[in-house]
Each structure stands twice: as structure tokens, then as C-alpha cells.
User: Fold this.
Amino acid sequence: MLSARPNTINTVKAALGPISRRPAAANTVPAFVSPVFRSYASAGITEPLQRTPLYDFHIKHGGKMVPFAGWSMPLSYGDVGQVASHNHVRSSAGLFDVSHMIQQTFRGPSAQAFLSHLCPTSVASLQPYSSSLSVLLNESGGIIDDMIITKHGSDNEFYVVTNAGRAREDGEWFSVQLREWNATKGKGKEVEWNKLEGYGLVALQGPKAGEVLQSLTSYDVPSLKFGQAAYMDIQGAKCHVARGGYTGEDGFEISLPPDAAVTIAEKIAFSPGVQLTGLGARDSLRLEAGMCLYGNDLDETISPVEAGLAWVVGKDRRAAGDFIGSSRVLRELKEGPARRRIGLEVLGSPARQGAEIFTDDGLTQVGIVTSGIPSPTLGKNIAMGYVQNGYHKKNTQLKVKVRKNMRDAVVRGMPFVPAKYYR
Ligand SMILES: *[C@@H]1O[C@H](CO)[C@@H](O)[C@H](O)[C@H]1NC(C)=O
Ligand SMILES: *[C@@H]1O[C@H](CO)[C@@H](O)[C@H](O)[C@H]1NC(C)=O
Assistant:
């Protein structure tokens, strides 16, 4: 695990008892928070929560800390509400701590072949210093996790970011697969897997993100396009910066070396136009952008074709089918999946995770909502869910059962809010 500053944790623990009982890490999560936050929250209560290198920084700046995926993370800051915070990112810029995510490298003469074995992406056609969304699949084609893969200077070196909530499952998967790889196909050209322990990771997102980053580096920021990555000097530290994010806005994910994490975060957070932004706004922004949250919208029973992520399956990979889980993926590409992920607009009241989706006559259940919110940007209730194949076409009229009421719902294209990537 990416366990930052274990010494601090132990010292505090000794002084105060279990961290979960500290007021700063209260185990109460407001009702508006997506259920996955609450389920992660309850799962984390018995174990001491991990802290990112920015934990003290959050406390100092009014972070309302909640347990998330085993980590103590800011839900919001001070008295800035979730909607105001969300709107600020869409109109200016927000800084998010995403250091709980797992940053790792895969290096070695067969690193490209190893990752190609593990995921359906055309890893071989990725340009140097460019990234792609991808998925780890189990033997049955179910999604173990979604991840971002970045190729560095050569085919022998990759930087991969996976989800905190899947750290245990991903870790076991990578270990087992790598052991086998090193002993068989990768023998003599082994792959080394390293987690970036103690590093921070922040996301700077919003229309002003480019301007803000440019004010802190001499690197020519406009030369970096969406989906590209580079090392740049920020306040004297060499940082890995990837242009992209989880909000649909222009933005950057900036990896912070342990010694410089707090200084750089401070510098960005207090640049003109930037607001610290917590998990609450992160969830509403990503849902408007049509992006999946693992645990809500993705799990091990769902395939990339069902999830509307068939585009991550590279063209060359379809012909060869030489990746784990390929038989289901190739079959579904050919014959269509049994169910599909859709976007929904729900009239009347917001549908939440678990709400049942019915045919328009209200008689037959055809699916389930996996995420739903009142959209701050659109002023409508939006949701994501899965329905049986055939009910997924845009403008299909459906019903969603919200508490005891059947609400009208319409299938909508995603993203709900158009993306504004810098290309
Ligand atoms: C893949 O995950 C699904 C869902 O948990 C499970 O049913 C299936 O057995 C898994 N397949 C393998 C080969 O592990
Ligand atoms: C694979 O090989 C690399 C390079 O020799 C080694 O560092 C690593 O520990 C091996 N990993 C496994 C899981 O065998």
C-alpha cells in the first residue's frame, strides 16, 4: 500500500488511541454522499485510516475529513458547500488530493508485453509520454479495476495509476501475474514492479488550470496536450505531470515527490483562482463527465463492453485476442453484451445507487442505477446505470423507482456535460 508517513501515524496513534476515534477523522458521512463512500467508510472503521502526505495540510485548511477506501480524505473544506465547490471547478480551477490512489511503475525488457497480457489496450501503439485509460480484466473478462497507463520514454517503462479501493485486489493480481510472467514468457527479460511510496498525487482541474500551472513552471504548458505526460520542474522539484483528469475539464494530475508534496500543494492551492476541492464535488463532477467510479459503476462481474468502454480495446488486440479475459470481450464485441451502461435523466427526484429501472409501462425491471445526483451544472437529476441490451438507445423512455414512486426517466448520451479537453 501507498502508506505515507507511517511514523507520524504511529506517533499520533500512541498519543490518542485509534485514529478512527479522533474528531478530525469522524466516521460520519453526510447523507448526500454516494453510497460507495459510505460502504468504504464502514469498511474502514476497524482499521486505522491511512493518511496522505497532505493530511496536515487539509486539517490546516479546514478539510472535513472522512474515511474513504481506508484513507482519511477531505470531503469538503470550511463552509464551502459541495455545489459551490463543483461550480468553482467548472468556472475556474480546483485542487484535489488524490494521493490515496496507487502510483506504480513497471519496468524491464518485457514491460510492454506484460501489460499487453494484462489489459486490452494497444500498449504497443501508445506514443512515448502518452496515457490511456485501461482496465485490468480477470479470466472471465470482468473488470478488476480501471487504471491509467502512461508510457515513458521507451517500451520498457510504464507509469500506472490504480484505485485506492482496489489496492488489495490489484496488488494480489499484479503479484500473481508477475511471478508467473517472470518465470515463463518474461524469463530472461523480467519485469520489475515498484510502488511510489510516500509520493503525493494532486489533480488541478478547471478552465484556469493551464494558466495556474504555467505560473509555477518554466515548462511550455501549452505544448502538453490532453493525454500526454511530462516531467516538469515545479518549485525546484521534478514532477510527473499528466494532462487529463476526472472532471471533463482541462487539467493535470501532478505526482509530487515526498519532500516537496506540501510545498507544491500550498503553492498551487493559493494561486489566484484555485480552490481546494473535496471528494463530494469530485463525485458530482465525474458523474457529469460520464466517468465511472469503481465500486459503483464498475465491478468484477462487468465487462468493458457492457461498461461502454469497448474503445479501450485496441483494434490490433481484437484480431489477436491475446489478453486475459479476451474470450468474453471478443464475443460481446461481436454479438453485443447482455446489458449496457447508460446515462439517464430522471424527472421529479434524484435516483441513487440501487434504484431499480423499469420499462416505460412500469411492469418489468430492466436494470439498476449505479450512481445518481442532482447535477449542479445542468439543474437536472442525472444518473448512470445498467439496462438490458435493447433499452440502451438514446431517448428511450423508462421508469425509475425512487423510494416508492415510479419516476419518468430518459436515456441520455454521456458525457452529460460536454468535455473541454485541451487537444
Ligand atoms: C471474475 O470475476 C467474476 C465476478 O466476481 C467471477 O464470477 C469470476 O469467477 C471471476 N473469474 C475468474 C476466472 O476469476
Ligand atoms: C520479477 O523479476 C524482477 C527482475 O528480476 C524482480 O525484481 C521481481 O521481484 C520479480 N517479481 C516477481 C513477482 O517474481
